[in-house]
Amino acid sequence: MYSRGSMSIYQLLLLVLGSGSAAFGAAIKAVNMGAKVAMIET
């Protein structure tokens, strides 16, 4: 995944779509387990 400004490359283990309580819970649990997580609010 490239960011527009700096052209950095990110390695993600989980992409969470949505911003509800279940999405936040999944993201928090994954981060606590050491995953790199990105969230996209739909």
Unreliable stretches (pLDDT < 50, length at least 5) are none
Query: How would you sum up the global shape?
Result: flat
Name the helicity range. Answer: 25-40%
Order of helices and strands: EHE
Mean pLDDT: 80
Q: What's the main sheet like? A: 2 strands, parallel
Q: CA-to-CA gap between the ends? A: 18 Å
The secondary-structure class comes to: alpha+beta
In terms of DSSP E residues, the strand content is 15-25%
* Total number of domains: 1
What is the total tally of β strands? Answer: 2
Radius of gyration over C-alpha positions, nearest whole angstrom: 11 Å
Strand order of the largest sheet: 1-2
Question: How many separate helices?
Answer: 1
Q: What key phrases describe this protein's structure?
A:
alpha+beta; flat; FAD-dependent oxidoreductase 2 FAD binding domain-containing protein; FAD/NAD-bd_sf; 1 helix; 42 residues
Write the layout of secondary structure elements.
Layout: E1 14-17, H1 21-32, E2 37-40
Parallel strand pairs: 1-2
Describe the 3D structure.
With 42 residues, the chain is α+β, with helices and mostly antiparallel strands. The chain has one domain. It contains one helix and two strands, in the order E-H-E. The chain has one helix at 21-32, and strands at 14-17, 37-40. The protein has a two-stranded parallel sheet with strand order 1-2. The two termini are 18 Å apart.
